[in-house]
Design brief:
The chain is of the alpha+beta class and 105 residues long. 27% of the residues lie in helices and 29% in strands.
C-alpha cells in the first residue's frame, strides 16, 4: 500500500507506475492522477500548434497567404503530430534570390 502525493489516498502498489528515479522504484503519483494531469486541458494546450493563415515575407515586406511560402522539414519532438514549418521568404523572393545567386557564378 502506498499514498498518492496528488490525491492523498492510500492505494495498492499495482495502481502506481514504475519509476526508476525514485528510491522505491515506484512512482509517487497514482495512475489515475497521472492520467488526469496528462490528458487534462493544461497538458495538451502546451503542445497545440496554432493555425497560420498569413505570414510576412521579410524581403518584400508584404503579408501573403501561407500557400505562397514553401514548406520545410524540421526535427521536432515526438509529441507534436505532423507539424508544418514554412520558409521565411515567400516562393517569389526565394526564386529571385536563387537566380541572383546562380548568375554570380
Amino acid at each position: 500500500m502506498k499514498v498518492c502525493e496528488k490525491c492523498s489516498e492510500l492505494k495498492n502498489v499495482s495502481d502506481f507506475r514504475e519509476d526508476k528515479r525514485t528510491k522505491s522504484k515506484i512512482s509517487n503519483i497514482c495512475n489515475e492522477c497521472k492520467s488526469k494531469y496528462r490528458y487534462g486541458t493544461n497538458f495538451h494546450k502546451l503542445y497545440q500548434q496554432e493555425v497560420i493563415i498569413e505570414k510576412l515575407c521579410p524581403k518584400c515586406q508584404k503579408v501573403k497567404s501561407i500557400e505562397q511560402f514553401g514548406k520545410r522539414a524540421k526535427k521536432v519532438p515526438y509529441y507534436r503530430k505532423n507539424p508544418i514549418y514554412y520558409n521565411s521568404y515567400c516562393k517569389q523572393c526565394v526564386s529571385e534570390l536563387t537566380k541572383k545567386y546562380r548568375s554570380r557564378k
